[in-house]
Amino acid sequence: MRRDTHALTRHEYDLVIIGAGIFGACAAWDAVHRGLSVALIEKSDFCQATSAHYFKMIHGGLRYLQHLDLRRTRESSHEQSTFFRVAPHLAYPLPIIMPTYGHGFKGKEILRVGFFLYEILMTGRNRNISDPKQKLPKARFISPQEVLECFPGLDRKNLSGGVLFYDGQVYNPPRLALSFIRSAVNGGLDAANYLEVTKYIQKGNRVIGVCARDFFSGNELEIRGKVVLNASGPWAHQLNEKTLGKKIKSSPTFSRDLVMVASRPLTKKYAFAHLVKSRDTDALFDRGGRHIFIMPWRGYSLIGVWHQVHKDSPEEIIVSDEELQRFVDEINHSYKGVDISLDDVTMVNTGLILFGSKNNQGEADNYSFGKRTILIDHSKVDNSEGLITLIGVRATMARREAEKAVDLMFKKLGRKASKSRTDVTPIYGGEIDNFEEFFKKAMDQQIPPLHAGIMRALIHNYGSQYHRVLKYTKEDPLWTETFENSTVLKAEVVHAVREEMAQKLEDVVFRRTDLGTAINPGEITLQSCAELMAKELKWGKARQKKELREVKSIFSRKGPWRRAKTQSNCDDI
Is the pLDDT at 199 greater than 90, yes or no? Predict the structure, then answer.
């Protein structure tokens, strides 16, 4: 992945994609895989916004049964399995326990009916998955004693047991998006980060490309395409209105979702789903509130999701201490055994997702959640030919919704669409039939020798391509070292710059490596990382200091209440 902005101006593409979150990344991969020439541009870094900060879950669609949305449940189950199949290094099953109480909607009887239907809709979920640990077992109901063994702090009054079921988890969302992008680059995609679209190029009522400004040089360039896909998420309508000069009808509502990362393991083997007082107002079958999840992740705990209707610009995402405390209080009230405080929180992840449209959506305890991805053919909406807008709801559905968008592009191009094969084609790093066997073989063959926790993290992040990182250790043996209290090799920083288009310190700290995805790694690590990048990119002292200030500012926004903490979870990964 080389950042060559001039290459983007040399010819007309079949497709220009704006926005390199998970939906734009999947669209680029699907389009290239089906033979289209594609350019992908992003105004900041790849997977910088919501796609980097969601709850790291790949939902199988169980919640949609509450709405009797059987089609969405079925589609979600299929897409969940697709991630397990094409990205086994980054996506894997997650066991979850949901307690049951009494004999009503919170009891086992109703859930048995729900899971019976769920199992029918999930038929074929393990098709073409060879690794036993990547296969989703059937749900099973467990006794109160089994539930309390895992979560002894639960309220025991009327506890009738629980259900153990499986959903999906992502090891590192930014690396998942990068794997899709790199797959597309290997297939011919031209991509560049830090290119902001300033306007559409129009010929009559047809959009024939975009004008973009280079963040670093300030230069303007024209990128031409037969079709333009706006996949910039919460920025999509804002960009369309600005560049088309037309007010877009029914602008979508977004929720600012919030997920906390906790330093201590609140649960080890199983994730935990528990009811809270907030409700989904559209649910036809309400168990008494929506579910908050507490789940293990890379030696930490993830807690989410807290929703807040967002009415400001996409850039203005603020989490106050008071709001975070309300979230903590609701968790402690619902499950007293967790006993969490702000001192346990190492980081807060936030992003904007589509929300519902009910009048009461802004009320504190009632929400109407977004149900469907928005796919707009602008020729039918505002007579703008050659423009499509895609705004996704859930990362789980990114590949499938991208496929639908590319199908529409073929129609706009007047060409017959070839069948998409991205649901069975491993993405970059995904050529692993059995993760544990691959890991053991890598441990036996590794040169230089690495700690098992470091090697496991390396394979999770880079999959079958992990050797592309290790090759840099031959150039400089010091790059075999890890950063302080981390599993991240210094070679990963060099790899990020030379092969993954990392342009800024924050790109490496938050998206190319694990350094800052869960906790502030500390002054020594940040300084060392900045020095490595400075040498690779020939930064002067002033630029190096600027990059450090910006990263520290981001850490401040992700948790202004907390002290910087460092710890090693090497043995837990």
Answer: yes
508 DSSP assignment: I
398-408 pLDDT per residue, tens? 999 999 999 99
Backbone angles phi, psi at 272, to 5 degrees: -130, 130
Q: Residue 207 phi/psi, 5° resolution?
A: -85, 125
- Alpha-carbon gap, residue 5 to 165, rounded angstroms: 47
**DSSP annotation of 233:** G
Q: Which tokens sit at 557?
A: 């926004």
264-289 confidence digits (pLDDT tens): 888 889 999 988 766 555 555 555 56
Each residue's pLDDT tens digit, 126-180: 999 999 999 999 999 999 999 999 999 898 999 999 999 999 999 999 999 999 9
Residue showing tokens 């837990």: 572
How many C-beta neighbours within 10 Å does residue 430 have?
20
Interhelix angle 452-462/435-445, nearest 10 degrees: 120
Instruction: Report yes or no: 230 and 19 within 8 Å, Cβ to Cβ.
Output: yes
- Calculate Rg over the CA atoms of the chain: 23
Pairing of strands 159-170, 91-101: antiparallel
Backbone angles phi, psi at 257, to 5 degrees: -85, 145
Whether the bond between 348 and the residue before it is cis, its omega within 30 degrees of 0, is no
Phi, psi of 25 (to 5 degrees): -65, -45
pLDDT band at 49; cut points 50, 70, 90: very high
In whole angstroms, give the CA distance from residue 80 to residue 396.
6
Measured CA to CA in angstroms, residue 10 lies from 215, 221, 225, 558 at distances of 20, 11, 11, 40
Three-state DSSP at 225 gives strand
Q: What domains does the chain contain, in order, with CATH numbers?
A: 5-50+174-246+382-413 (3.50.50.60), 90-170+253-367 (3.30.9.10), 435-572 (1.10.8.870)
**Using H for helix, E for strand and C for coil, what is the string for 264-283?**
CCCCCCCEEEEECCCEECCC
Question: For residue 258, what is the DSSP state?
Answer: E
Q: Residue 26, SS3?
A: helix
Helices (H), 289-424: 321-334, 378-381, 398-413
Tell me the C-alpha distance between 168 and 427, whole Å: 18
pLDDT in the model for residue 565: 39
Taking CA 237 as the corner, what is the angle to CA 233 and CA 243, rounded to the nearest 5 degrees?
120
Phi, psi of 403 (to 5 degrees): -60, -45
